[in-house]
Amino acid sequence: MRKITLSNGTTVEVECLSCALTGGLIEPEGGVVVETEYFHAHQDVAYPIRGLIILASKRHIKCFDELTEEERMDYINLLSKIRKVQREILDIEYVYYFYNEDTTHHFHTWMVPRYEWMYEFGRSIESVRPVLLHARNNMNSEENKKEVMSAIKALTNELKC
Ligand SMILES: [Zn+2]
């Protein structure tokens, strides 16, 4: 069991954070961006980067080869759909994707938009962790949070169509 402190200050104990989120036990701050039969997308606002999305499977699996045929189709279609909307609505030119199987949660893909300011941390894989930490530790201004929340809303609205 893992202890999770929610944004409203209450603490819950969950077996798997991804299960708690995708199953609706925990409501992500900003809400669910889009949801299908097999997948669930939200922004982890602990990393306040405009347009960042975490796409998680609803089933508690860890590895890519555990996806069923239907889940695979749903995954790639939803990933592409979110990517397209990031471009059209938020003008995001490039996205970094990452996903590791030895996670303490379950199957989830990070979609991290690439912004100009990130290049000071380098390029490619080695820049991802420093970028995320920088966002988490230094980008919590009200102004930036507002931008992040409004991006969540814009993506959510567009993905309803
Ligand atoms: Zn799980």
UniProtKB/TrEMBL annotation:
InterPro entries on file: HIT-like_sf
SUPFAM superfamilies per record = HIT-like (SSF54197)
Alphabetized UniProt keyword annotations: Hydrolase
One GO term in the molecular function aspect is:
hydrolase activity
Q: What is this protein called?
A: Diadenosine tetraphosphate (Ap4A) hydrolase
The protein's organism comes out as Litchfieldia salsa
